[in-house]
Amino acid sequence: MTSIFRKILSLIIVYFIIGGARLTGSYQNTDIKAVTNNIIDGIISGNPGMFSSSDIKDPEDIIRLTQDDGEGGLYFSDIDYQNGERSSWPAARHITRTGRLAVLFYTEQDEQKKAEYRDYVLKLLDHWIRNDYQNSNWWHNRLSNPNLLGEIGLLMRGELSRKQLLRLSELVSRGSFTVTPVLYDHTGANAMELAMSTIKFGALTGSKKAIRDAVKVARNVLKYTDGEGLNNDGTFFQHGKRIYMGGYGIVFINGISNIIYMLSGTDFNFSEKQLAPLSKFILDGMRKMSFGATLDPSTMGRSVSRKNPQPLPGLAVTLRRLAGVPEMPRKNELLSYAESIENDAKENTGLGYFDTAKFLVINNEDFYFSFRGGNEEIVYSEIINDENVLGYNSSFPGTTTIMHTGKETINISPVYDYSFVPGATAVYENDEELLAHEDFTYRYLKGKFGGQVKDGTGIVFAKTSHEDIDMTVACFATDNSALLVGAGMKDAAGRKMNTCLDQSFYTGNYTQNGNTVIHNGIKYDVLQGGTLTAKAQHRTGSWKRNNLPMSAEAVEGDIFTVYIENTGSYAYTVMSESTDESYEIIVNSEKLQAVRMPGGQIAAVFYENGSFEYAGKNYSGKAGSSYIF
Fold it and tell me: Global pTM?
């Protein structure tokens, strides 16, 4: 929240910035004029569009809801301005609706109608400026509001009085590095969006320095980091060391795309070398975790608990825009990726491994699989703003995503059993018991972690104690299949546990033959472990279960679940129904896990220094290391 002192200080700084721009005539600077025109053209064309669109499109409907506030301004009768909801803040609709009218004012040709829109916009701005509505969630005050108000200010700049320009610019400056230096602490997608609002502040006030400040931050964020942001293996982290390809990763891509658009035709823009990490993130990271038009839900953070969370269809437009940037590397690949999303076409990117998070993927035309190992720096599932509140079990190492169509879990959240997270071995708990766990947003694992990919074979492993559950888990994989093994699985309190193989929407039939189950084109075969159970259930739930700000209205769905009862160890394979690959388990213990791969290679993980013999040969290794012999 902005204090009175901070607000006064910001007003003074903004006053001198605007005054200096008038004295020097910097509004006429070629680059500033180009940036201003680019932003306005983008707002009008929707490329880029408004930072957040209005909930009401029809101008007459918006105007009909306005009420005189008794002080020369207007407010909306249907908005509860005192409701402080952190995620879907009702008061924010005041700005988005005002922005809609500002666009109509700017594009209207009829002078009488144009004047009408102008008066409404100015009075709505007066009400917002006078009341200075703020939210306990910094995102609204420092990021969303400044971006939106900056766009409105640029559309209406010729109509604003000096006082209105000063007051409005102060609100926009709260999202500007130039006036609010504390914002430099932000990283990744948040830093990129703050760079956007800083550019808008610079254009609104005529400050070339502000635009330079934003460009400097954007260029730094495009560099590889060992913390939040871009990693050199193609992953993206946000809110700690947490894979966030969807959600913040998409925001990051859209943000830099918008900034490139804003800066086009100026000396501010980026070089091919500066844009190379962005291409790598999109093509060597995002694309490998995409299955047609579906992004791996385990890489989407808390946004997976929202309705219609899949972000890829909207990304295709951004990819085509980026491919049109002369300095952008790998343009043809970007266009190919966009086309695969638009056509929901599966690309064969094969076996991939991301060492920063010990994350392995298999991606071919009819099978997608991912396995999360983790390490002592990776944080797990996120609960913020009362979203993903049931996600406790998705923090376990060894959780998986399995897809054949890409539609397996889209909008499954209302009827999902969050005690059965694929790949996790856990105690069964109902919603109330899951909610009772302390916030695990920034918990870290302790133990041994690692992995590698070599010659078409992948390994990821984790030996840890997670929430009083001991486990030694590993995934051995080819381009087409995966073997998952676990050993030493025990709960400190001796509670019964299950290992979930998969949970998804039921497609109408499944077959079970002993320890083999086939459903929706995926084959699960249990080689070691307890009793295999497969079942289809009709469930009723609500979005509010896992995302408290959302609707409590009943939602129904049919769900397929396959799991095994914990006996201390397990081994099972996952592959498409059309694949026939077999593994031989040599050793599966807390000290060593070793297998013969379908292609004949011997792959092993040593948790202690040791050796083993197989087929007359001796294999040895060091503790905490994986080997592909």
Answer: 0.89
